Amino acid sequence: MNGFKQIVQSNRVWLCLDCGKCSSVCPITRHVVDCYTSPRLLVETAIGCGEAEVLDDPLLWSCLTCNQCTEICPSLVSFSDFIQNVREAARDQDRSGDCTHGGMIQTWGRMMTDPELKQDRLDWIGSGLKTSEESDTVYFTGCLPYYDAAFEKLDIEGIEIARSALKILNHLGIEPIVLADERCCGHDQFWQGDMAAFRKLGEANLEILKRTGAKRIVTTCPECAWTLKHTYPDTIGDSGMEVLHLAELLAETDLLDNLTINPDTAHKQVTYQDPCRLGRFSGVYQSPRDLIQGLGYELKEMDHNREASLCCGTSCWSSCGQVNKKIQVERLKEAKSSGAELLITACVKCQIHFKCAQNDPVLEEEVQINIRDLTTLIAEQL
Amino acid sequence: MKIQEKGSKIILFTCNWNAYSGLEGAGAEKRSYSASVHPIRLSCLGRITPGIILKAFEQGAKGVYLVGCLEDECRYETGSQQIREIFLETKNLLKLLGYQDNQCQLDFVAAGNGKSFVENIHKFVKGIEELEENL
Ligand code: SF4
Ligand code: SF4
After folding, report:
1. Residue A227: inside a domain
2. Residue having the nearest C-alpha atom to atom 4 of ligand 2
3. What is the domain range of residue A238?
């Protein structure tokens, strides 16, 4: 138990005992019906009960690490970090979250820890898109090629996001380096508490990235951006390179200034899903909105937006069930009731999770709204 | 060198019904195949997931051979169709991970056909052996 108490102390979550403010916003607390669970209660369990109770608490593996709690916390507690620390300790006792998708995604992540692995991951580049061996900029593809293969049935914009990113970068005169031996960034391994795999992935990536001599990493995945920019320096090492989500980079350019607005998109009503890692984690709220409006769309905000945005319902593939589905459906209904006819995201995982929820044969129209990635929408207009 | 002498493993997933009876048929007819092949019987090949196939490779398998029932002989009607989709998805992932085409194959055999089952296994093992020789 001492281990957990120490984690309680280092994360200052004892402050939660007298509080419980975030129980009102935590999506897991709101949607779990067969028992009561909340961030405060988990802390109470960690302090007052045995280890087994903590390991069995429904919040431990279902917490989305969405930071909605942190956003309103009066005591500046980072509850997500507490969860991450406890998950790490739980791993030592062979405990882990649900094995979603038959463990496929965790497995390919672990397979990428093999230093001998020779991936064949650049086929998507094809003709018409320019990359180079030497450049100031690396385009970090993340797991897009893998998601594209794994979620073909959901008709997601997987690798199309990467192609669009290259098209946009080329349009700006940037011919980035795209790495043949890039590994999964390890975001999910980190948040699942699998530090052994995370470290191996991170170390491999840092070595590959440093070898390029580039100054900047651009990615279209908010999770890659957060992990490369913050988690690597905090835990493994710093690439010394600037890390940007493409939306941040584009906000600094005049890309959209001279754009002839497509009459099809002009004044079309759209809404925007703030991905947790881009919004609450990185504080990037305005750039994607500026880009959306720059494309001529009329932005209709959902009731919960920016700091109060609701999560897409699943995180780091460690839980997928009734509760996650309820969160997704709630969000999709909110997107529809904003009056928008298009839901724009800037994270492939938001798209995967929402499109999966839309597959529900019972809900049908209630949750049907077209979903697109910001990157592909921009590329389409160039 | 034979794959068996190298200690490499090949995982053979078969479904419990027609395909497995092929393997039983091979046994009854005393037909031998490489000892590096480790058969795992599933209730239906359509119940496998890409994650399980990847896991076999993660744990060091050199090849994964999937043997199912002919389409119109699937006991659960849709299993043979499902495995085709699962196989394609897995192949795409394995290609990205740098695996060769012949390291994961899918075949369908008729009930109790031990001869063709073993011939298929020989062919699969040979493919893996050639690959290992070229490494
Ligand atoms: S995380 Fe913050 S808001 Fe939530 S219970 Fe703890 S102290 Fe209160
Ligand atoms: S991070 Fe999100 S899911 Fe986890 S406790 Fe906080 S609000 Fe709840």
Report:
1. yes
2. A63
3. 101-251
Where does a domain end: A56, A91, A126?
A91
Task: Using a pLDDT cut of 70, give the percent of chain B over it.
Answer: 96
Q: Is A116 on the interface with B (CB under 8 A)?
A: no
| Cβ pair A25, A70 in contact under 8 A | no
> Domain check: are A82 and A108 in the same one?
no
One domain, residues A114 and A238: yes
Tokens matching residue A141: 């593809």
Show the CA angle centred on residue A320, arms to residues A316 and A325, nearest 5°. 115
Q: Are residues A246 and A108 in the same domain?
A: yes
What is the set of domains in chain B, with CATH numbers? 3-130 (3.40.50.960)
Q: Can you tell me the distance from the alpha carbon of B85 to that of B99, in angstroms, rounded to the nearest whole number? A: 19
Beta carbon of A306 within 6 Å of any ligand 1 atom:
no
pLDDT band at A361 (very low <50, low <70, confident <90, very high): confident
Over residues A259-272, mean pLDDT: 86
* B10 bridge partner residues: B37, B63
We report the CATH number of the domain holding residue A290 as: 3.40.50
Instruction: Give yes or no for residue A22 CB within 6 A of ligand 1.
Output: yes
Kindly state whether residues A229 and A162 are assigned to the same domain: yes
Q: Please name the amino acid found at residue B87.
A: F
Identify which of A23, A59, A77 to mutate to test ligand 1's pocket (most ligand atoms within 8 A of the CB): A77
Q: What is the pLDDT of residues A297-347, one digit of tens each?
A: 999 999 999 999 999 998 888 888 889 999 999 999 999 999 999 999 999
Mean of the pLDDT values across residues B112-129?
A: 92
Q: Among A40, A61, A91, which residue terminates a domain?
A: A91
Q: Which residues line ligand 2 (CB under 6 A)?
A: A 22, 25-28, 39, 63-69, 79-80
Strand partners, B108: B68
- Asked whether A227 and A191 are in contact (CB, 8 A), the reply is no
Closest residue by CA, ligand 2 atom 8: A26
Same domain, A334 and A243: no
Confidence of residue A260 (pLDDT cuts 50, 70, 90): confident
